Amino acid sequence: MKNILGREIPEFIEGYGKVKPFAGAYANIDRISKKEVKINCALPGQGKVLKSIREAILECGLKNGMTISFHHHLRNGDYILNMVLEEVANAGFKDIKVAASSIFPIHAPLVRHIEKGVVTGIYADYISGPVAEAISIGLMKNPVIMHTHGGRPRAIEAGDLHIDVAFIGAPTCDTYGNINGVEGKAACGALGYAVPDAMYADRVVAITDNLVDYPACPIEISQEYVDFIVKVDSIGDPKGIVSGTTKITKDPVGLIIAKTAAKVIDASGLLKEGFSFQTGAGGTSLAVAAYVRDMMKKKSIKGSFAAGGTTGYIVEMLEEGLFRSLFDVQCFDLKAIESYRKNETHMGMSASMYGNPHNKGAVVNLLDVMILGATEIDKNFNVNVTTGSSGVIMGGSGGHSDTAAGAKLSIVVTQLVKGRLPIVVDDVTTITTPGESIDVVVTERGVAVNPIREDLIEKLNAAGIETMTIEALKSIAEEMTGVPEKIQTEDKIVAVVEYRDGTVIDVVRKVK
Amino acid sequence: MKNILGREIPEFIEGYGKVKPFAGAYANIDRISKKEVKINCALPGQGKVLKSIREAILECGLKNGMTISFHHHLRNGDYILNMVLEEVANAGFKDIKVAASSIFPIHAPLVRHIEKGVVTGIYADYISGPVAEAISIGLMKNPVIMHTHGGRPRAIEAGDLHIDVAFIGAPTCDTYGNINGVEGKAACGALGYAVPDAMYADRVVAITDNLVDYPACPIEISQEYVDFIVKVDSIGDPKGIVSGTTKITKDPVGLIIAKTAAKVIDASGLLKEGFSFQTGAGGTSLAVAAYVRDMMKKKSIKGSFAAGGTTGYIVEMLEEGLFRSLFDVQCFDLKAIESYRKNETHMGMSASMYGNPHNKGAVVNLLDVMILGATEIDKNFNVNVTTGSSGVIMGGSGGHSDTAAGAKLSIVVTQLVKGRLPIVVDDVTTITTPGESIDVVVTERGVAVNPIREDLIEKLNAAGIETMTIEALKSIAEEMTGVPEKIQTEDKIVAVVEYRDGTVIDVVRKVK
């Protein structure tokens, strides 16, 4: 069958199941259920601290075929996933499903566990590095399932993704399971992605290298949700957890794009008292923030909030009084962690509060402007941030689809050509985010507005910003690069790309 | 049938259902389920602010027979329950069940709603004033169900108490439903009792007199849980919400009792580094805190935490460095509210985190010492804080049973005789808290230790504290007052007293 975006998807995918086809960004948002949760109650006097990860695995009653989960706040410095899987493998378990909110190059040992049949299933919002490459060439029998950052908590809460045992990397944990990410040698700040795992898994194990006396303070994840605690020497490498500081691009092309995006924001009429904003940690995105910062100062605008994974740059805007508060699901750099620890207006949010379409209103719903990246964008404004130019998985939605769906103005900022390939194409290799939720594409060669946003085209034109059709942008790109060859794939589906509501927006097939 | 404490309870109670008899304080703590929750999802752009309580009632789809809930942080200054029931009555609804975490004298208009059939069921942890009196004389057809502060979230989470619409009195609320109790003219501090209602009700309405721009900061209850918001002129009378300051007793008898209780704590060996403590807001309880404070200073002890409803007195101990942190479910006075707002080591906790026996470990489980009151205590150490000397309901467990079950040392402090009636009796009128969870009774005439705590008797005697049997205490009391006459009751059951695990520990019968 074809879904509403014209993507050919089987009705049933082996190793995945029956497909619910994507039916629009705002379909399926009605009345839903959050699943029943099973709890092993603790008696007074009962302790939670165990001696080893092995002991925790056994106490949790792990069995072949079960699903274990991980969160990615330790990013490319994370030791937790590797440590746990090593023990799982050593204990002789097979057929384990890994639900990791993201997978990074550091998780390369996972490839070996897949090869040996220890791990036979993967759920993730973002996958890069050797694991992504191994998946793309068909190493796994069953397709991996790719969520968005808001779709993952949705799936967990709905029971679509049932977690048997959640392992939480805890920069600080007390002896009864209260966790925070702001203290300890592996401090990573906000722990928003771990919250749904803690709340909905059958069993929850906190793994920490900073076991403190009861009670930890502050508490980001409460003792109510933690069954067991294991102390290890190190949960991660601080160098991989955070960059020292995130930086604005110095590339002149990137700066042109950013400046134009800022003009689009200004022209949209959204840049006024109470403005809300999110941008990624990339250099061009941060450059947009820099121009927005200048405009806010000039106009004496105080914004309501900035959201996201947070960087020091956004923290500076908070400190300057340009926003009243920040909502943070993960901290990208040291300055963000420090701010999250000290400033009460720098507030944490769970992944569900951040982007889950199936709750009573996520933070993304109140975003005025979202700055997004793209690997490809097609003539229907569909965006690919899942696969690279060779068809190999190199990312995933993360919060891309969630913020695009929520924000009043979603702007993709990108160079028109990267690595001699056009970014604007007829059809993207993989649809990550549907075009209906993308409003504008800003490149160094021109600005294209989604035709469904006639109001915006008028506003931009009134402000003297030239716009062109996306087809025109595509032509300019193709003039520079020629029409790229179609990526050759085999039939085998290596990844199912779920939209945030759990429908299938696309699949990734094995690369040749 | 008789339950394990010898209380005669029908196997089936009309208007309540099948009785699960109380089987011990630590029975039924094993593997449980938290129920499925139904959610009405919000689309981006969808607003939540409604014009009136009436509109909210209708939007929530209230129907005859449904259960609506309230929390009691506004205490005897609460306008919410009365305002909502007025609208419910005006709209012509009948047969509504009211699940209020506590009911106070200010809720007298509820009597009229009961008389008119608007309200036909009540669930509460504590009831005092005209509503309690009306219930006691048999005004309601069905018995009210009395929970503990930890048993209420247990019942809500398990689905034993299903809430159709929760009304949350919000001292501050933003336009998307983020709530805190620390700002606004009706600031009451921590909102812990409202958390389970917000998380598990079908529909949640925030009623506020301080509607602020998005986002509120701090956030105690998140937008994820709130369907609608209504602004009203006033949610409560600050004079009834908090006392200006809570005070230590000046009564010499109270001081003697408190001093003895402090000696018991000292002798128990628990008063050491990491000590944890809870006491109520009563004058004698606070006097115990004062003696404990002195001892901690003398011995240079730093405690781990104090918990509870919090008073300025406990805040002072935090500020002096005698505790590392406070866990707060409700603030009793202005100083506590101020501290909760400003001090990050003064942490909030939900009712479930506080006392729910059916989670992975409540805060009460880690209490070293709990200071409790009693209206009556019997020779098996069972405590009544539910009914008064005439058999009329005048309170309820609140956190009494929860903290008694959790704490390593539960001390009842009471005068031996009150209002010419002995406090130590053969059988208490109503069992609120089972004797197995009470360790010591301290009166001005002597100290009785529960014989199951042989270890404690030895320690007290070694420290030179004379102990006597509870029977001896009873004899002393009866020498002063004579043996009191048994309260005469009719067969009709007006209240079912549930222990924290949902079993029935006792019933209250209609007074003659």
Concise structural overview:
Chain A has 512 residues and is an alpha/beta fold.
Written account of the structure:
Chain A is of the alpha/beta class. Chain A has 2 domains: 48-241, Glutaconate Coenzyme A-transferase, CATH 3.40.1080.10; 252-487, Glutaconate Coenzyme A-transferase, CATH 3.40.1080. Chain A contains 15 helices and 30 strands. In chain A, the strands form 6 sheets. Chain A has a 10-stranded mixed β-sheet with strand order 5-15-13-10-6-7-8-9-29-30. An 8-stranded mixed β-sheet of chain A has the order 19-18-17-16-20-23-27-28, with helices on both faces. In chain A, helix 8 packs across helix 9 (283-299) and helix 10 packs across helix 11 (334-342). The longest helix of chain A is centred in the middle third of the chain and has 17 residues, at 252-268. Chain A is globular and about 70 Å long. The model of chain A has no long low-confidence stretch (mean pLDDT 96). Chains A and B meet through strand 3, strand 4 and strand 18 of A and strand 3, strand 4 and strand 18 of B. Strand 3 of chain A pairs antiparallel with strand 4 of chain B, so a sheet runs across the interface.
